[in-house]
Amino acid sequence: xxxxxxxxxxxxxxxxxxxxxxWGSEVEGVMDSFLxxxxxEFLERPGKKLRGRMVEIGFQLATGSSENMTQEKNYPxxxxxxDLLESLHSASLIIDDIQDNSEMRRGEPxxxxxxxxxxxxxxxxxxxxWPLQNVDRWEVSAETKLNIYRVCHRGLLRAHFGxxxxxxxxxxxxxxxxxxxxxLASLELKSGALTAMALxxxxxxxxxxxxxxxxxxxxxxxxxxxxxxxxxxxxxTIEGPKxxxxxxxxxxxxxxxxxxxxxxxVEYVEFSDRVNCLPNSEPLKNWLAENPIIMGARxxxxxxxxxxxxxxxxxxxxxxxxxxxxxxxxxxxxxxAYV
Length: 339
What we know:
Helix content is 70%, strand content 1%. By secondary structure, it is mostly helical. Helix 4 (50-63) crosses helix 9, helix 9 crosses helix 10 and helix 10 packs antiparallel against helix 15.
């Protein structure tokens, strides 16, 4: 098993203590079979680990340290916070795949396709709670623990507001003039909330003031939105089941936002008609080949990303030089990957 995965789930022997049952040993094997083993298999799949990296950057922004970062009091818990964030992100992917009825995730069948929806739903929900249970063991101050719980609770609450928009709306039933704002709200509440939570977790571990945490939160939301914009644009060009998935499901997305903003009413209806042909993708592919929507979506995403980076010029971040450098390096990787 990947050593990194062992830090994300209970160690052998912990299940009995967690269950707190007189005869807990009788069901420990069941928990392995129907909860932990499916999660281990999913967590072993390779992922970008981008949001976990954002936790360390948030810590750097708060402490203003570079070479001496490892000497900071709470540095040993940055890896734990990164694991916490990756666990929450993995939980959201499992649940999101159920709601989208997705077939594949990270190159393999989704958890609900492989193990059934009831088991996957329970496993995904359990993975929201387990990492927060562990925070009580961290050797940090009670105030820091409280701030970690606060940041995570707010992030998860906002993400579920965003998911309500995502799964509840048929975006093509929204008036064209309201589509872009609706899509941006969905992006901010979902992708933005998770990235903001990552940066804020690192910041509170680094002892950030409320003002500095607020700047990290603001940048995290803006950066997460830009990430999703590039991802939405990229998903129109990849081959496979993920191509056009959001359009097929009529979900809010950056592509629909750009179409609603840049097309006339007649052209927007034409675009909608091509989307309605999915899963037959040829009409939409042909239409996109003749209309610069994807190119425009990438260009506007780059502008949005540049605007997010301007937040880093805040006086409150003047000492976080190394963290800002790492964020700009991540940005360059992002642009190269999607443009």
